[in-house]
Amino acid sequence: MSEFDTKALMVSPHPDDAEIQAGGTIARWIREGHKVVYVLCTSGDKGTDDPKMTPRRLAKMREKEQMDAARVLGVSDVVFLRFPDGELEDTRELRGKIVRAIRQYRPEIVLAPDPYRTKFFQHRDHRSAGMAALDAVYPYSRDRLHFPEHEKEGLKPHKVAELYFYGPDEPDTFVDITDTMSLKIKSVMAHVCQMGNGRDVKKWMQQRAAETGKKANVKYAEGFRRLVARR
Questions:
Q1: 6, 108, 139, 154: least surrounded by Cβ within 10 Å?
Q2: Contact at 8 Å (CB) between 195 and 188?
Q3: In what side-by-side order are the strands of the sheet with 221-228?
Q4: Model's pTM, two decimal places?
Q5: What is the DSSP track for the chain?
Q6: pLDDT tens digit sequence for 74-83
Q7: β-pairing, 36-42 with 77-83?
Q8: Residue 177: Cβ within 10 Å count
């Protein structure tokens, strides 16, 4: 077994965050033959303005749409943690679940929302997920005496090589998604209950990726703030 069983583990606060923020990158890595897995912190059970919708029904709907989107990109596994939407906290329980996934899937890269973003509003679930993922990567998943219950399940400590924060104020790492932009759009549009006017969403995604692409001298790109974990 190689040191890294998985190219990337995506920590996503809600359904659709993974595809919106990094769908093109994920599609590219999978196209190159790598394995990518998702860890969904919540099922987005509050994300609606429909007065007849209930949290339980919405969560079920959004989980199905998330699975549809993951299939578009070729994501290997989707882990649903099912914390309540809007109530995600940077707790030992959340950190432990992310550490468990890291030790199970043994990724080279963990992707997570940048918790230090300051130039625009950010959902609190994103901040909490980002902080929990940061600590899970280093030092918790590395050190065997953190969450020793995992060892009893046969899960060994794991050293993640890199952390990619998505949605940063100032990205320093870019991935060319020109060849996978269409897959990114298709995966985002699989989140039917969230996308509204599909034509406007497609235009917005293209504009956003083009703006990032200018920084990388390519047509379309996604940008990240990259941390190299201590080895």
A1: 154
A2: yes
A3: 77-83, 36-42, 6-12, 107-113, 162-166, 221-228, 173-176
A4: 0.95
A5: --S-SEEEEEEESSTTHHHHHHHHHHHHHHHTT--EEEEEEE--TT----TT--HHHHHHHHHHHHHHHHHHHT-SEEEEEEEPTT-----HHHHHHHHHHHHHH-EEEEEEE-TT--SS---HHHHHHHHHHHHIIIIITT-TTSSTHHHHTTPPP----EEEEES-SS--EEEE-GGGHHHHHHHHHT-HHHH-SHHHHHHHHHHHHHHHHHHHTSSSEEEEEEEEPP-
A6: 999 999 999 9
A7: parallel
A8: 26
Tell me the pLDDT tens digit for each residue of 100-142: 999 999 999 999 999 999 888 889 999 999 999 999 999 999 9
For residue 176 the two structure tokens come to: 């060319």
Amino acid at 1: M
Task: Label residue 227 left, alpha or beta by phi (over 0 means left) and psi (-120 to 50 means alpha).
Answer: beta
Take residue 29 and report the two structure tokens written for it: 């890595």
Residue written as tokens 């339980």?
56
Domains (range + CATH), the chain: 6-228 (3.40.50.10320)
Q: Is 167 left (phi over 0), alpha (psi -120 to 50) or beta?
A: left
